[in-house]
Design brief:
With 113 residues, the chain is an alpha+beta fold. The chain has two domains: 34 residues; 78 residues. It is built from three helices and four strands. Strands 1-2-3-4 form a four-stranded antiparallel beta sheet. β3 and β4 form a beta hairpin. The protein is globular. The relative contact order is 0.12. The mean pLDDT is 79.
Length: 113
């Protein structure tokens, strides 16, 4: 009986720790969005997508999410909004603190269009 109870307690602790880790990640990403430089970085991403894709509708309505900010470089994911992006395509970008885009990598879904 004690063994069964210890397994249940262990399982609950694993579930709770996973929830806390997920919560920490959400707080970290939220802090990136509240950074004073984020609006400038988001604008640089939007301008670069409009320039590369030739479609300001896609770039204007896309969702921009910072995923990392390390050593003066932001990692940003732009996901297109429906109806411009029906299959989940996104663009990964690396942008310096000064707004210079140093990496632009479209990620297309595997679904046929």
């Amino acid at each position: 009986m004690k063994t069964r109870a210890s397994f249940i307690v262990s399982g609950l602790l694993v579930i709770l720790s996973a929830g806390c880790a997920n919560n920490r990640e959400l707080l970290r990403l939220d802090a990136l969005k509240r950074d004073a430089d984020w609006p400038k970085i988001r604008a640089a991403a939007e301008i670069e997508i409009a320039r590369k894709e030739g479609n300001t509708d896609w770039s204007h309505s896309a969702y921009y999410a910072p995923t990392q900010h390390t050593n003066g470089v932001w990692a940003v994911v732009a996901s297109g909004a429906y109806p411009f992006n029906q299959m989940g395509d996104s663009i990964d970008m690396a942008i310096r603190d000064n707004g210079e885009v140093i990496s632009y990598s479209p990620r297309f879904s595997k679904h046929p269009r």
